[in-house]
Design a protein that fits this description.
single chain, 93 residues, mainly alpha, 3 helices, 72% helix, 0% strand
């Protein structure tokens, strides 16, 4: 495991693929490729933070984190988006 980013992105791609198979949505190949790319990017950038925060660096569970991030990145993004859309500034409309 010399290149950790390769393994993180591979796990993110696998999680994204499982998520797409589970949904069974008919989407275009371009959108499917974008979804897989986003899942790999989220796994590469978010997994080290999550592993460090929960102190999983010496645990076998650290290998599940990038897979889970790749699988559930869209749900997390949608939840954050809906939370932020409910936030109203005092001077906003």
């Amino acid at each position: 495991m010399d290149d950790k980013y390769l393994w993180l992105s591979a796990a993110g791609l696998a999680g994204g693929a499982v998520s797409q198979i589970k949904k069974r949505e008919a989407i275009s190949p371009w959108l499917r490729l974008c979804h897989l790319t986003a899942s790999a990017c989220c796994a590469v950038y978010a997994s080290p933070i999550i592993i460090s925060y929960y102190e999983l660096s010496q645990s076998e569970g650290q290998y599940l984190v990038p897979f889970g991030v790749g699988m559930f990145w869209l749900k997390l993004f949608e939840a954050a988006d809906s939370s932020l859309s409910n936030f109203k500034l005092p001077w906003g409309k």
